[in-house]
Amino acid sequence: MNITLYNMTSEANCIGKTKTAVYPTMTGYLRNESSRNNPVITIEASAGGLSTCNYMYIEEFNRYYFVTDIVSVRTGVVDIYGKVDVLESFKTDILNSKVILKRQRDNWNLYLDDGSFLTYCNDYMYTVNFPTAIGSDTYVLVTAGY
Amino acid sequence: MAYGWKAHYGYYIDPNGTGHGTLASPYLDGKNISDCILTDKNTKYFIPEVDDLPQPHNVVAHSTDRELMRERFRDERHIGTPVSQGITDWRYFSLFPAQPSPSSINDQDYWSYIYWSMCQITLEGNYSPFTIVDQPYKGNPFRWCPKLCKAMVPTLYGHVAYTFVYLYEWGKLIDQGGNLYTVGSTGSITRVGSQSFSAESRIRINSFTSGTSYGAADFVVCYKAPNAQTTSCYSVQVNLNGGAVYSWAVFNGLTTVNNYVVTYLGVDNGQYDFKSDPGEDPDPYAQTGEKSKPGGGGGTGVIPGISPTPYPGSVDLLGVGAFINVYTPNAADLLALAGEMWAPNVVELIKGYVLQPMDSIISLHVMPWPLVGGQRMPIKLGFYTATATAIEVDQQYYEHDCGTIHIDEIWGSYLDYKCRFSLFLPFIGSIPLQPEDVIGKDITVKYMMNILTGSVVAYVIRDDAVIANFGGNCSFQIPLTGADKSNLISGIIGVAGAAVNGLATGGMTAPVAAGIASSSLNTAMSKTTYQKAGGLGANTAYMGIRTPYLTVYVPNMCLPDDQNGFIGYPSYITDTLGNQRGYTEVYKSHIHASGASEEELIEIENLLSSGVIIA
Fold first, then answer.
1. Cα separation, B178 vs B101, whole angstroms
2. Residues 6 or more apart from B593 whose CB is under 8 A from it?
3. Residue B227 touches chain A, beta carbons under 8 Å
4. Are B450 and B456 in contact (CB under 8 A)?
5. What's the rounded Cα separation, in Å, for the pair B222 and B119?
6. DSSP string covering B17-76, please?
7. What is the spatial distance between Cα B609 and Cα B603, in angstroms, rounded to a whole number?
8. Is B599 helix (H, G, I), strand (E, B) or coil?
9. pLDDT digits (tens, 9 = 90+) for B19-70
């Protein structure tokens, strides 16, 4: 099967990862008792040459994988352990999905209180005076009489 | 986006010329300089003069007229000018005498005058360019400067001057830095180095020649806004006009007077103590964004904007002139009346109708309102018409409009609706108001007053609709007594005179016609010698504040840096994930991914629920 090995520099939970192909086209084969989601691929390469490879794409599975381990089998042959990256493998379908956002960096409604904003115990205080005070004092004399 | 920060500026000179990092004996202690604290009163190197404001055009001549100096400074600073066109603001500046060959520390010609202050300003708008909002500083830019300090330090050949800037963002030190300057043999000061920092003031001063226009590099100010990616530098040209008249440099940052070069070291300013007026606080996250829409259920989703309770307006009631007479006398009128009432013949005459002459007086009290008077008329006491006169009042209810205030949002978020509001109403007391009644609204307070009883009702009006009304009493009842005829009446005049500036009643109780109830035409059979109407003790509100005011308690938000980048802000908005960037947490999703197994779909939804970053 055709494998592309990458050096990936994004966060694991990133959709749209930044990656640089280290070995664009390599041929390997699936080791016995490997799964599609956690495959073990045997390729002919030196373990030292793969030191920067932490990500791969397997064309036959149409999926991206995190490289979780590289094990030298013998000289010039290594096993590459992978774990499927569903976010990158199904990126197009995910990004086309409509969802209810819970929290977002730029698309938010700050009038919602979900408890994520903390406040100090000491409030600010200020006062605003009304423009006009109640006026000057006046005597009032009330008498009986007609 | 609005933003704000504060900066502390400092300056000291190392006489040994060893430079930054080995400031073994600085004349000015940078730690204390911003507080305007003397490091050593016995030295001549530090002369603080709080509020001694220098004139930028001629620092040698100081004015003792503080307001004049402030006014001048206000005129000559360019708040409101975009940063890209000028210096943000001056806050700290120094004056370096550019005299040749300074050689003696005792020669004051070669000393530098250094002024600094701690002020604040609100920067608003996008980072590029900043727009400085003038509003908080209208009238007096020094309003927010706790102190202005002055120091005089020697600037001799070979000395090294070190300036530093500390930048605080919301109380947290975010940046600092400084510059090193050497004093050259010609008295010029040259910047020879800097400590790395992203917000700084850089000054390079050369020897200037009269009539020469210097290049843009003569004066450079650089600064980097918090979170900005780059440092912006602005330059200014120096123009000297024959050494006599000096035009301001391009960016109001540098001018010269004779041989003096006034330099402004302040790069920005910002919030020094934003607690002093949070109404001017910048909103750190007041960005525009899509808002969730109101509505739901079977409701119309339309919220009435106006309370159905209109302001009742003026009350037009009679009651004056039928059985009673109301006057608004002055102190002289009362004295004349008192003298007349206790004249022996008049007393006997009045007592033909009532037991006590004072019984003809229903009430004498002080009201905190100027009354609309009619004609001056003789005062009627029962059937007796006195020769003493007073202005007759023919209106029972008076309205007083205390005006309107507007309360804006501080944070632009739900936190504004966590504010607490306390409205103080004179003669009534303090009452709480709901944030929904206040935020973003025009709040008006109007009083309606009954001059007979002193009862008042204060109407709190929001956008032309009454949202609350409260009752109280504002009359200060002057005690009337028959204990001692003339002495007491004379005493009353004195008490009444004092009462004008004295006491009144307050409280939330319903108005009570105390005056009418306690003294009336219903004469007592007993000639009790101590009848009184009203009382002093209850009218304490007369000593209180006469202006309504609103006290606002604003939650003090604790916002970590880049919170929305790490965990986002609350959203609860339906949208396509492809429209989002950055941290995204999904409340609910139904992902249809072609070829994905059930296990993979579950994992996708779990990951979205726990938060992903969309590049």
1. 26
2. A86, A90, A93, A94, B600, B601, B604
3. no
4. yes
5. 19
6. ---TT--SS-SS-HHHHTTT--S-TTSSS----TT-PPPSS-TTS--S-HHHHHHHHHHH
7. 10
8. helix
9. 332 222 223 333 233 333 322 222 222 222 222 323 222 222 233 333 443 3
Q: Burial of B325 by CB count in 10 Å (0-12 exposed, 13-18 middle, 19+ buried)?
A: buried
Tokens in use for B289?
């964004």
Tokens matching residue A17? 């990862």
Task: Report the residue from B415, B553, B579 with minimal CB separation from A125.
Answer: B553
Closest residue on chain B to A137 (Cα): B368
Around Cβ B236, how many Cβ atoms within 10 Å? 22
What are the pLDDT digits (tens) for B292-301? 444 444 445 4
> H-helix or E-strand containing A92?
helix A91-95
How many residues make up chain A in this entry?
146
> Are A111 and B413 an interchain contact pair (Cβ–Cβ within 8 Å)?
yes
pLDDT of the residue at B312: 65
The encoded tokens of residue A5 equal 């090995």
Distance spanning both ends of chain A, measured CA to CA: 117
Q: How far apart are CA B583 and CA B566, in angstroms?
A: 7
Largest Cα–Cα distance in chain B? 117
Q: What is the pTM of this model?
A: 0.52
- Closest chain A residue to B389 measured between Cα atoms? A141
- Burial of B344 per CB tally in 10 Å (0-12, 13-18, 19+): exposed
CA-based nearest residue to B429, from B311, B540, B537: B540
